[in-house]
């Protein structure tokens, strides 16, 4: 398709996409204001002059929050659940008692084990006395060698029995301690899986869960295609990632990126975090690379399971061009911008975009450094080849072309009869 043909198609497209704007801004009723020679003066438009510079890039992904530590609280001994000792959904510290299992059976077992231990200790004392009497007799050959050996064996057997009784006592004491179920970590408790009076067995011992929400993790994934594209851009010099993003960790455990989170209502979470994990292999189930960010959450604003938008900062595009969002127009043939050439005439230009940074589109193809791009004034300047009066674009200011009538129109408005 020739350049003239492309221009004609783009012009026709714009006429169809902006009809209401044209009607609203066209001349009405009386005569139109005239410039020198009876023609309309060139409309004033705001333009920017493109300059290549390093542009910060913010990578954005969908993520889901998760506790930095999550654990299941389970009973280690079987028995009747006597009492729940915590309020569901509250924060607890590690070691806080959560449940009490009926200790009566384990108290009896401990008492029995302690009694057996006392018997074993008494037996050891008796065999030591016997052995101490037999030792000098054996040295004087007053008893047979068998009797001396039997005395030594009896002592060793008694000492082994004592160790066994001590181990059984320790086990009974440990089982009794396990009847009081405590929090293994600090965090927020879930609902109780068992009620008072339930029988706790080895196969059904889950009592509740605890989630540590400060700090909070945000899990997300990066597609294989996107990673390949980023790798190619890095190789060609179009993209620069933070120094530690290649896998080397900083002193604080970060991989170089700064992390911010956008919540479901569009608001930005008030604290920033760090990227602390990036997988080296593709997840075969999702075909993507898993990654994880860590954010402080002292106020509990973030809850496990939330879907958020995670934004990674620290990357940049060296020597790249960017244009404001309003400078880009959608057409059936893709994205286009209006370039004001050296003769101050409009020239539609198809462009290719790659990424969004600080309210501007990054342009990778279609325009060059030094060219002027129309940002404001589309209402009055939309025809290819149209002559315009370009003025520098000031971000945040309203274009003069949209708020002020031409000088001739203003004069005519003052002269009109009231």
Any chance you could write out the topology, listing elements then pairs?
Elements: H1 3-17, H2 19-25, E1 44-49, E2 53-74, E3 79-84, E4 91-92, E5 97-101, H3 104-139, H4 145-178, E6 180-182, E7 187-189, E8 199-200, E9 206-223, H5 224-235, E10 258-262, E11 273-283, E12 288-295, E13 307-324, E14 329-331, E15 334-340, E16 346-350, E17 352-357, E18 360-365, E19 372-376, E20 389-392, H6 400-403, H7 407-415
Parallel strand pairs: 1-20
Antiparallel strand pairs: 1-19, 2-9, 2-13, 3-5, 3-8, 4-7, 5-6, 7-9, 9-12, 10-11, 10-13, 11-12, 13-18, 14-15, 15-16, 15-19, 17-18
Compose a concise summary of this entry.
The protein is α+β, with helices and mostly antiparallel strands and 418 residues long. The chain is built from seven helices and 20 strands. The strands form three sheets. Strands 1, 14, 15, 16, 19 and 20 form a six-stranded mixed β-sheet that branches.
Structure description:
This protein is α+β, with helices and mostly antiparallel strands and 418 residues long. Among the domains are: 58-68 and 212-316, Efflux pump adaptor protein, beta barrel domain (Elongation Factor Tu (Ef-tu), domain 3); 76-97 and 180-204, RNA polymerase II/Efflux pump adaptor protein, barrel-sandwich hybrid domain (OB fold (Dihydrolipoamide Acetyltransferase, E2P), Beta Barrel), CATH 2.40.50; 103-178, Helix Hairpins. The protein has 7 helices and 20 strands. Strands 1, 14, 15, 16, 19 and 20 form a 6-stranded mixed beta sheet that branches. A hairpin with a 2-residue loop joins β14 and β15. α3 packs antiparallel against α4 (145-178). The two termini are 54 Å apart. Mean pLDDT is 83; it is low at 12-37 and 399-418.
């Amino acid at each position: 398709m020739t350049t003239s043909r492309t221009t004609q198609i783009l012009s026709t497209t714009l006429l169809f996409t902006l009809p209401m704007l044209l009607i609203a801004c066209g001349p009405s009723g009386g005569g139109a204001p005239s410039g020198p020679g009876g023609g309309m003066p060139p409309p004033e438009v705001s333009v920017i002059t493109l300059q290549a510079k390093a542009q910060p890039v913010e990578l954005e992904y969908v993520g889901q929050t998760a506790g930095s530590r999550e654990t299941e609280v389970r009973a280690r001994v079987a028995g009747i659940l006597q009492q729940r000792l915590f309020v569901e959904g509250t924060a607890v510290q590690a070691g806080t008692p959560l449940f009490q299992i009926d200790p009566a059976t384990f108290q009896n077992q401990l008492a029995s084990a302690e009694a057996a231990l006392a018997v074993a200790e008494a037996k050891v004392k008796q065999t030591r006395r016997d052995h101490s009497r037999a030792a000098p007799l054996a040295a004087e050959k007053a008893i047979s060698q068998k009797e001396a050996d039997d005395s030594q064996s009896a002592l060793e057997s008694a000492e082994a029995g004592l160790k066994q009784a001590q181990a059984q006592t320790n086990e009974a004491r440990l089982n009794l301690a396990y009847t009081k179920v405590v929090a293994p970590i600090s965090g927020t408790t879930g609902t109780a899986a068992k009620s008072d009076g339930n029988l706790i067995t080895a196969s059904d011992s889950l009592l509740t869960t605890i989630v540590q929400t400060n700090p909070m993790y945000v899990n997300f994934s990066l597609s294989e295609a996107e990673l390949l594209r980023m790798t190619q851009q890095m190789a060609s010099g179009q993209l620069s990632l933070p120094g530690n993003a290649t896998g080397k960790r900083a002193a604080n455990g970060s991989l170089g990126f700064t992390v911010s989170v956008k919540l479901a209502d569009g608001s930005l979470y008030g604290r920033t975090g760090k990227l602390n994990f990036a997988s080296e292999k593709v997840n075969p189930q999702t075909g993507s690379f898993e990654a994880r960010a860590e954010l402080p959450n002292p106020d509990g604003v973030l809850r496990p399971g939330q879907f958020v938008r995670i934004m990674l900062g620290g990357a940049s595009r060296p020597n790249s061009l960017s244009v404001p969002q309003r400078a880009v127009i959608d057409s059936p043939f893709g994205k286009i911008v209006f370039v004001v050439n050296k003769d101050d005439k409009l020239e539609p230009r198809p462009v290719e975009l790659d990424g969004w940074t600080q309210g501007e589109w990054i342009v990778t193809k279609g325009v060059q450094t030094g060219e002027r791009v129309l940002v404001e004034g589309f209402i009055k300047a939309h025809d290819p080849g149209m002559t315009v009066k370009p003025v520098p674009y000031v971000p945040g200011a309203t274009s003069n072309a949209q708020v002020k009538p031409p000088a001739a129109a203003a004069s005519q408005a003052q002269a009109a009869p009231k």
